[in-house]
Amino acid sequence: MAPRRRYGAGAFPKAVESPAPEPPDPAELYAALDLGTNSCRMLIAQPKGSGFHVVDSFSKSVQLGSGLERTGRLSRSSMARTVQALRICQQKLKRNKVSRMRLVTTEACRRARNAGEFIQMVRHETGMALEVIQPEEEARLAVISCAPLVSTRTDQLLVVDIGGGSTELVWIDLTNVPNRDRPRAIMRLHAGFHPPESPFPAARVVDWISVPLGVATLRDQFSDVEDDAARFALMSWHFEENLAEFAPYRDDIARRGQFQIVGTSGTVTTVAASHLGLKRYDRTKVDGLRMTSDQIDAVIRRYLALGPAGRLKDPRIGEDRQALIMSGSAILQALLRCWPTDRLSVADRGLREGLLYAQMSADGVLEDGPF
Q1: 189-224: string of b/e by CB count within 10 Å (b at 16+)?
Q2: For residue 239, what is the enclosing H or E element?
Q3: What distances in angstroms separate CA 9 from CA 2, 12, 14, one per listed residue?
Q4: Which residues of the chain form beta strands (DSSP E)?
Q5: Tens digits of residue pLDDT in 192-237
Q6: What is the DSSP secondary-structure string of 321-355?
Q7: First to last CA, the chain
């Protein structure tokens, strides 16, 4: 006779529902919107320890600066595309009840003759007040966003932010800062490149420059060159010519002490993803990755061998970035010609993160301060 089953044996266990996460308190939320020459990107986040936790985000290629090189104006179609993207951002801000925010725009609106008309249109259509920031603040925000990636052994640091309409370079001397304090000293630059006297060890900004050439503007300047390799070479040398007045270029101080480049841009992260052979982009594998000059050069040579048709089909590049990857690579190659290094750190972060850090630091809500 078969043994009797114990009552309840084999029964499905009672389902236990995990409690839904508590929605963030709107009073703790901050937002940062970066409207560039090519992309519109936004983050909504709350402070967490010495950093922040992202609650919501948005990113879209809007090509606001399309045709700007030729006409000096923002086109009707690019403004309409951008306003449509900003409506989505406005809905996210409203849904999350965000009250503390900075909504900034950069090179395209600094240069366009009709930028004021566009900013008024955005306010009328979405209620959002865009702020045109100057190159120094753009460079400063890019620098502080990259502070967590700076090695405590770095004596000389070059931060490079390759944008759609401009490229910012900032050279920082950390030799007078104790090793463990170096990332924190960089974070303190949110107050300015030449802050007032402070009891804390200070990072010294040796020089900085904003070159009015980014992936979109550089591409547009050489769009009439048909040969792919020739166009790439011309773009790279033209960008290097624009660095002639950058002081560290003349002084060659990259050879002094431990030198590190931190690169932040879609170009740098795309090159990193190609180097890793990723089939799908993975921020956790890209952000903070270190690459050598030879590894970067190998990826760029592979891009040139693929040609425009091959790059279009490459899943690591993508359809949106295919038209811009070679101008970005030309900028990257020029930088590595000037300052060869085996320590280029890839940063999947930039202006948005810098805006968030600056706001939170000013409010004193980050731990491990003071910043």
Answers
A1: bbbebeeeeeeeebbebbbbbbbebbbbbbbbbbee
A2: helix 228-241
A3: 15, 9, 13
A4: 30-35, 39-48, 51-61, 100-105, 131-132, 156-162, 167-173, 204-211, 259-264, 290-291, 344-347
A5: 887 667 677 789 999 999 999 999 999 999 999 999 999 999 999 9
A6: HHTTHHHHHHHHHHHHHHS--S-EEEES--HHHHH
A7: 77
Q: How many residues does the chain have?
A: 371
Residue 131 per-residue DSSP state = E
Describe the crossing of helices 325-338 and 266-276 by its angle, rounded to 10 degrees: 90
Q: Is the pLDDT of residue 7 over 70?
A: no
| Predicted confidence band of residue 125 (pLDDT cuts 50, 70, 90) | very high
> Which structure tokens are listed for 291?
């690459």
The token duo for 282 is 């993975």
Spatial strand order in the sheet of 131-132: 51-61, 39-48, 30-35, 100-105, 131-132
Diameter of the chain measured on Cα atoms:
96
pTM of the model: 0.86
Distance CA 189, CA 203 (A): 8
